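Q: A reviewer asked whether we had any structural model of the full assembly, not just the individual parts. We don't, so I'm hoping you can provide one. Inputs are below.
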Amino acid sequence: MRRVIGPLVGFVLVLVAASSASAAEGTLRIGMTASDIPYTGGQTDNGFEGFRFIGYQIYEPLVNWDLSRSDRLPAIVPALAESWEPRKDDPKKWIFRLRKGVKFHDGSAFNADAVVFTFESVKNRQAPQYDNYGAGQLAARVPSLKSIRKIDDYTVEIETTTPTSFVPYQAIYMVIVSPTQWGKVGKDWRKFAEHPSGTGPFRVTRLVPRERLELEAFKQYWNPKRVPKVDRLILFPMPEATTRVAALRSGQVDWIEAPPPDAIPQIRSAGFQIVTNKYPHNWTHTLRLDKEPWNNKLVRKAANYAIDRVGICKSLLHDTCTPATGVVYKGHPWFGNPKETYEYNPAKAKDLLRQAGFSETKHPAKAVHLISTSGSGQMQPLAMNELVQKNLKDVGIDIDLMPIEWNALTNRFRLGFNIPENQGLNSWNISWAFPDPWSAFGRFFLSKSVPPASLNTMPYLNPTVDKLMDEAERTFDVEKQNGLLAKIHEIVVDDAPWIFIVHDMNPRALSPKVKGFVEPQSWFVDLTSVSVTK
Amino acid sequence: MWSYVGRRLLLAIPTLLGASIIVFAMVHLAPGDPIAAVMPADASQADIEATRRAYGFDKPLPVQYLYWLGHVVQGDLGRSITTRRPVIQDVRDSLANSLVLALSSSLIAFGLGTAIGLLAAFWQGRTLDKLASAIAVVGVSVPHYWAGIILIIIFSVELNWLPAMGAAAEEGIVEYLRHIALPTVALSLIPLGVITRVVRSAALDILSQEFVLALRAKGLGRRRIFGHVLKNAAPQILTVLGLQFGFQLGGSVLVETVFSWPGTGYLLNLAIFQRDVPVLQGVILVLSTFFVILNLAVDLAQSLVDPRIARQ
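A: Here is a predicted structure for the entire assembly that you could use as a starting point for your response.
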């Protein structure tokens, strides 16, 4: 026996000793919440986390978000296009003047052909480079872009379905891929995804499915201000929140997304940085407006006054959210000046409910709400919803929570309330992103957005909002456009077609070695300013 | 002998077909669907319908199943819906990792379990026996994913000795071993408990038989008797070991998920949440095949160890 134990102990000691060998200097290792590496072949998947770590790191769109500041919403700035504007003679056509001297990771030059190639790959089913999967991912984000034409090597013209000033907000989601690389890998998107080539600040060096994606700084990146400070970037998919925390605390990664709120005090006291900021995210209950009890505006307002939002954010979520009193948050250019400010006021809620003709004995307010057990951006759905349920119960609104799995929920949601299996429902709890006017208002509050066209499941039908949105879309002056969108917001807040609950604060935990990161008011991040000290 | 093997392998075909039909049906019975799972949450129903048609998921289920089967027969497991990688490639990569993990944890469970079980039987009723029973009870009762989390807290977070997740196969053998250590321990707990108990009761059973008395009367020492007992208990231990190994291979979903160990369990878990039907079916098919082969191997090994079984 002793003959075995000796070497065994030695062996274990070797293993333990090896643990001190840490990663090379200048390597940033990130634990993502995605369960696999998001699609690397261009138009990425896994929602905005895919854009955050893949789409906007390997690739670039024509215009991009300025993510260098935390004190204001990111502005849209030039990226692969240096300037853009609608044509004076035809506002349905936009001219984009492209940047010269930009190289793809494979060494080929970026030009108008690459833009046309990319566009056709997601919009033209007949094109040899049509990418089924990428097209599916992108379709909902570029609804107005109809066709594209090369004018010369560094100018393209994008045509839209209707005159719309939202073109930059849509173009920002289409990242440009290298046609040369696609040709080199045998005109196969799957192979392209294994050997991707964009113009972004990081290039892929190695992809191990389900395990890791290794990238290195792209030395020939066109913008000297955004050449990455780190040499290498490694992304790990870590869907389990506890695994992410353990990986951070054991030094396997330097940065984790979405640490669970309960673990935050402990992570902080262990010397790690917790960064948060507000960003375009809302966590709401979308109400069904063609059926009792939510067809009554007074009941909807009552529900909004019944929620203890501060309680949810302070005691339940350890300050990783802020109260939501509308679709967007106060200080946002589209917030405006709504008549109602939904604070926690159970007395007022009870009063409103009584005015609406509901009483616990004679005419009880009852509803069934479909919620998820987890899911992207859903925060802590079970605990939060139990509090919401209790708050509503306290004022006399009795809601039944029906928890189902995330994928099943989104699936049922898209079909609207009017399919047989959703007949008994009065609401669903889904969180949303609102980085652009269409995501914030267009898809939810317009008459034309009723399913299957888009996501106005309630349905919210308001001709004034339809008209204002049309006007905003035709207004090319950003200030004026913001004013119109703020008007829409004021109306929506007053109509309360949602129970506005909280805005997530986008928590992430970073090792003390990570320096130079700015948490923007955005779903996306700029990793080029980040460095990792020894 | 060979006709027996052939017959058993033929019998495996309906088993595998059945498994694949059940998996296929279950995925489609469960709420959610593969296309919706890969589309962004804010995609409209119209976008989803378009993608569904492009993937052929608008066809009737039996047609979809037969199409899949037709390809499997030709050795093609299809492509993942989410990654579009060939399923065979994903299954092969993850199976290698799972096999290593199942082997390492089975080795520990088998070695320790047999030793503790035999010692407990020889010292029946003494402290050692009680200790062994305690180990066995803890082993089978503690949920292994929970044990995994506790191991991570102790050895990764607090002591910082071993990594908490991943396999890091590309970083060399030492790194790979460091990464596999914790999942191995977590995964070996249940079979350790089971094997300890089976070995103990088998050994007790044999010890009470008359031939042992005869051996003692002959004046054989403890060590020699130990050998005889082990030999007689072997068929029973082998059966349990085979079964447990199969469970390790297919049942490590939770442990692999806790440790982000890139094996079949992790792949299966991912495929379930993404409703990635081709991957699910591919993994289940390969795992069931393994199970069938494993059972056969155990049966054959038994008849080698104990010729009486072969004669029957």
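A: Points you may want to mention in the reply: The mean pLDDT of chain B is 84. The radius of gyration of chain B is 24 Å.
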